[in-house]
Amino acid sequence: MAAAVASDLGQVLAPRERRRRNREQTVSAILDAARAVMQERGVSALSLREVARRVKMQAPSLYEYFPSKAALYDALFLAGFRAFQARLLQALEGQATFWDQLQAILAAYMGFSREHPDLYQILFEHQVPGFAPSAETMAEGLALLDRITGLFAEAIERGEIAPGVSAGEARDLFIAITHGLTSQHLANDGDAPPGGGRYGGLTVPALALFRASWTPQGGRS
């Protein structure tokens, strides 16, 4: 049958919609192949020629979808960010207190790094020399960063914490500790789940340090 079926309702795709869907499927296959290459050879060793070979495409044809390696990295960065954001927002659901929220963020960050090491490296390790995400891609990341900053600002306003620095600085300090523990966890206990291993097991004590330091005088530690 020459026409493609659009849905269970039996609607026939218009040529333009069919081309759009075919393009989306091709882009998805290219990104999957690129991730496979990075997982096997390292994030910085991504090869457009090898990606084209894996999707059974001539290298020049790949440029119709991604005009440069930087464009492919940017698409991978965006895909990784969206996957991380979905995981983080799901982890935050139902977390009633500020400290529960921090615990959820830390666990989501460490869990993502273990399950998607290639995307984690693109997002947070900066292992691709010369690559910087596009302004459009960074805009999505900054929106999530602002949301996390809001958690700290609201906790300060409620008097729940008194970090002695701005909400942005408190956020950055928490991110630095989270990333440091995660980096050490991957390097030393990569097979251990979040919360286990030499460094993964320090997440609860790390939060206890923050809590002891940031709880206002007279508040409950």
Q: What does the model show?
A:
With 221 residues, this protein is mostly helical. It is built from 9 helices and no strands. The radius of gyration is 21 Å and the shape is elongated.
Entry keywords:
single chain, 221 residues, mainly alpha, Arc Repressor Mutant, subunit A, Tetracycline Repressor, domain 2, 9 helices, 0% strand
Ranges with pLDDT <50 over ≥5 residues? 1-10
CATH fold label of the largest domain = Tetracycline Repressor, domain 2
From the alpha carbons, calculate the radius of gyration and give it in angstroms: 21 Å
Question: What is the CA–CA distance across the termini?
Answer: 69 Å
- The share of residues in extended strands comes to under 5%
**Secondary-structure element sequence?**
HHHHHHHHH
State the CATH class of the largest domain. Answer: Mainly Alpha
Average pLDDT:
89
Supply the CATH superfamily name of the largest domain.
Tetracycline Repressor, domain 2
* Count of distinct strands: 0
Structure classification: mainly alpha
The outline comes out as elongated
How many discrete structural domains? 2
- Give me the CATH architecture of the largest domain, please: Orthogonal Bundle
- What can be said about the biggest beta sheet? none
